Amino acid sequence: MSKAKIKGKYFVTLVLSAVLAFSTIFSAYASTWTLTGDTNVHDPSYIAENGTGTRWVFSTGQGIQVLWSADGQAWNRGTQIFSSEPSWWAQEVPNHTKLDVWAPDIYYYNGKYYLYYSISSFGSQTSAIGLVTCTSITKGDWVDQGLVLKSTSSNTYNAIDPNLFADKNGNLYMSFGSWFAGIYVTAIDKNTMKPTGNSYRVATKDGGIEGSSIVYNSSTGYYYLFVSIGACCQGVNSTYQVAVGRSTSVFGPYYDKNGVDMKNGGATVLDSGNSAWKGPGGQDIYGTNVIARHAYSVAENGAPKLLISDLQWDSSGWPYYN
């Protein structure tokens, strides 16, 4: 065998090895994480705690359900946030179901953890968003901060599914809303961590829209509005899908890939589920590179389970994940 053939074979081997290595790294980075343990969840909100590295997920359920993980893969059930109802719950939403709390959202700011959540009765517009805070999730020194925002049948919006986020200058905002008149955004006072000023509608969708999550990506210069469209809570018959639009302004307009304003029903679907997972939604974006959501497991008769994936961005500045 000639030296040329040996070199050629060696070169091809190197190239193939490099390609395989790159593919392995890319697929590991751009894939859904392998999760074990207790992953029963609905409407998850994900965060990594400062100083400890512990990952936490807060979700819909009795008193706000809690999961924790030391490595982001093996998950354990923690202690629910509320063991009894704050007195103001019954005053603001008299027909809500005791400790049933919906769609919490965790946010770290200025040395504290802010956990927003909603109480309502299914299909009702009489709803409220509340706030509880702590200095350490591990210690669990939670303090009830009371009512943040409420709605009644006289409001256009429905005060559920809160999501706190920062704009490119560090100003704080909250998106919220469900069905009815869609998704709204309002400015948040940094001292009270509660709304200041008016709320502005940014998205509507026939057939259902809720679970908003907004993030600013400094690499693309856009704000991205992630939503769940369709209907949840029907196990494998759920029609939830994760969708997105983007804008150069916090208050929109947010356009989908086809240039349709989300206020007029626009929405680019990122995830419509597959043969194993139905009705993905209730998503939460952590930073700009992690997306957590629930989906209904076909193998477990429609049980809602936690899924976490690496969020990627294509050359045109649109998000995707596998």
Automatic annotation (TrEMBL):
<dbReference type="InterPro" id="IPR023296">
    <property type="entry name" value="Glyco_hydro_beta-prop_sf"/>
</dbReference>
<comment type="pathway">
    <text>Glycan metabolism; L-arabinan degradation.</text>
</comment>
<keyword id="KW-0732">Signal</keyword>
<keyword id="KW-0326">Glycosidase</keyword>
<dbReference type="Pfam" id="PF04616">
    <property type="entry name" value="Glyco_hydro_43"/>
</dbReference>
<comment type="similarity">
    <text>Belongs to the glycosyl hydrolase 43 family.</text>
</comment>
<dbReference type="InterPro" id="IPR016840">
    <property type="entry name" value="Glyco_hydro_43_endo_a_Ara-ase"/>
</dbReference>
<dbReference type="InterPro" id="IPR006710">
    <property type="entry name" value="Glyco_hydro_43"/>
</dbReference>
<keyword id="KW-0378">Hydrolase</keyword>
<dbReference type="InterPro" id="IPR050727">
    <property type="entry name" value="GH43_arabinanases"/>
</dbReference>
<feature type="signal peptide">
    <location>
        <begin position="1"/>
        <end position="30"/>
    </location>
</feature>
<protein>
    <recommendedName>
        <fullName>Endo-alpha-(1-&gt;5)-L-arabinanase</fullName>
        <ecNumber>3.2.1.99</ecNumber>
    </recommendedName>
</protein>
